[in-house]
Structure formats: C-alpha cells, structure tokens
Specification:
With 143 residues, the protein is of the alpha+beta class. The protein is 43% helix and 15% strand. The protein contains three helices and four strands, in the order αααββββ. The strands form two sheets. A two-stranded antiparallel sheet has the order 1-2. Strand 3 and strand 4 form a beta hairpin. Helix 1 packs antiparallel against helix 2 and helix 2 runs antiparallel to helix 3. It is extended. The model has no long low-confidence stretch (mean pLDDT 84).
Amino acid sequence: MPRNKYHDIDRARLAYAKQRKHTKAATDRLRRLLLGLLSKQIGQWIRICKMHTIDIVLTAEQSKRLSALKEVFHQQSALASKQEVKHRIVSIDRPYIRPIVRGKENKRVEFGVKVNNIQIDGISFIEHHSFEAFNEGADLRNA
C-alpha cells in the first residue's frame, strides 16, 4: 500500500465533525491537514500525467472536475493565509454555484440561482437571473 496520511486525516476530520463547537484553531488545523493531502494528491496526479501523457485521456467532465479541484485548492490556500476570495467554489460537481446570504429565519445561506421576476397581467417574466448575488433594487426602475 502507498504511504499516505489519508486514514489519520479522516480520523481527525471525523473527530472535528463530532465536536459540538468548532474552535478557530481546530478549523485551521483541519484545513491545513486537508490542504496538505490535496496538494500531495494533485502533485501525484501531475507526476503520473508527465510519465504517461500518451496513455491518459480525460473526458470533458473529468477535466472540468480536475480544474475545479485545482481552483478549490488555490482558494482554500488563500483562505488559510487570511486573504479574501471572490467567486468561491462550494461544489466540485457544479462549480458555478455560489452561496447567497439571504438572512432568513431557518437558513442563513442558500445555494442556487437568484432570479428577478416581473409579473404583467398574471404572466411572470424572468428579467434577470444569476448564480452570483445581485441587488434587485438596481433593476427596479427599468422594470
């Protein structure tokens, strides 16, 4: 078996998940462990690709996921070094989805598309939709 810290990091992640309160130190420690593991695995993938460039053919879906994983690694590294990250990826499967803070009672953050509707004579028209957060008041005068 190859030597890696996967099982140790998985145990640390499970212990973190079972904690009732997540301290900042514990969150930072787990983030560092997971970033180290992801960095190692991306490096191994790059070495395998260099050795077997002719044999490896990725589908479009696989290459999209790989680029999303690399982008997540860069974003999380920036977050670990206390930098602000714009257009943060929250789903590897659908990297275009962004968190939108709504401030509702039971859910603070929602994921998905934000839509600005106009209703004329009982018919609803979608005026603007985006996966990024936007202010509906800017389009109010035009509507």
